[in-house]
Amino acid sequence: MDYMFTYRVMKIIVTGLAFVLHAAIYAGVNISISAEPSLPSENLIQDAGFEEGIWKGGNYYKGKGEVRIVKEHVHSGEKSLCFMGFSKDAKGQAVSREFLIYTDMPYSFDFWIRSYREVPEGGVVSLRYYLDDADKTAGSVDAQVASLVKIPEKWILFSSPPKDITAETLMLFWQPTAKDVKRHYKSIKNNMIIFPKKNFANQERIRVRLCISASGLGVVWYDDITLKPLKSTLKYTVKGKDVSEIKVLNKKKEILKTENFSGNWNGEYSGALIVPADGKYRIEVKTKSGEINYGEYPGKNGI
């Protein structure tokens, strides 16, 4: 959820580690701050550890096999998602709830996987994306787990090709499912994926579902799937009288942006800045009288 807050500050009294805010007596300065995606960044996959019952098990839709939420093997928590294929023609899948991602923003995407002797042939973790005016899948980006002959029976993090497993026994690669030579996605490198706005009818956001599928003989477990934004657009609006300067700072108090309004202040200003999604940011507003007003985002009660 985005935090949107407006308040007036004239001075800050520090007591220990707590910040006590006092309302300004004079006209004051209003500072509103939000972010898209919201900060701090959150995992977009609901029930990413399969603990809450959102993901559903059942029989494979083709051949013989089962999808189960199990307790026998987990990476963390008490449950994981398991695919068990009992026939060569077996095909099954599990699909997440729909969520939104922002175009032109980098996201990290990874998951933990464990197998029993071999991974079912054709195991795929897909990000299936949709346009707002489309009911059918526009395309997808797939992390395909190649069929394995031997693999250590332990949990392995898939975000980029693992360094400790040889290419002959384990391979992770990405490919588009649609016959689109331009490829809707821009890049998948070092655990980063970007969906360019120009490839999606200039839409700010697109609808996405995560689909995990398996085919053929074999047993595989998934757990702790993560899809998180790496950057966000910080948006702020300042209203008030006699503002001379606005600064954007990070949690290290490094200045990211400065706007000066010597004689040009018209009572309101809105700005935006792309920032790392793991940070905390401060908007400092200086008036002609020298008063410093500020707001921080994110934080408890908007501070």
3D structure, described in words:
There is one protein chain. This protein is mainly β and 303 residues long. It folds into two domains: 12-40 and 234-302, Immunoglobulin-like (Sandwich); 58-229, Jelly Rolls (Sandwich), CATH 2.60.120. The chain has strands at residues 12-15, 18-21, 29-36, 58-59, 65-70, 80-85, 91-95, 99-102, 106-116, 123-130, 139-145, 156-158, 172-176, 187-188, 193-194, 205-215, 218-229, 231-240, 243-250, 255-260, 268-276, 281-287, 292-297. The strands form five sheets. Strands 4, 5, 6, 9, 12, 14, 15 and 17 form an eight-stranded antiparallel sheet that branches. Strands 7, 8, 10, 11, 13 and 16 form a six-stranded antiparallel sheet that branches. A four-stranded antiparallel sheet has the order 20-19-22-23, with no helix packed on it. The radius of gyration is 24 Å and the shape is elongated.
- Given as residue ranges, the uncertain stretches (5+ residues, pLDDT < 50) are 1-26, 146-150, 160-189
Number of strands: 23
Q: Alpha-carbon distance between the termini?
A: 15 Å
Strand content: over 45%
What percent of the residues sit in helical stretches (DSSP H or I)? under 10%
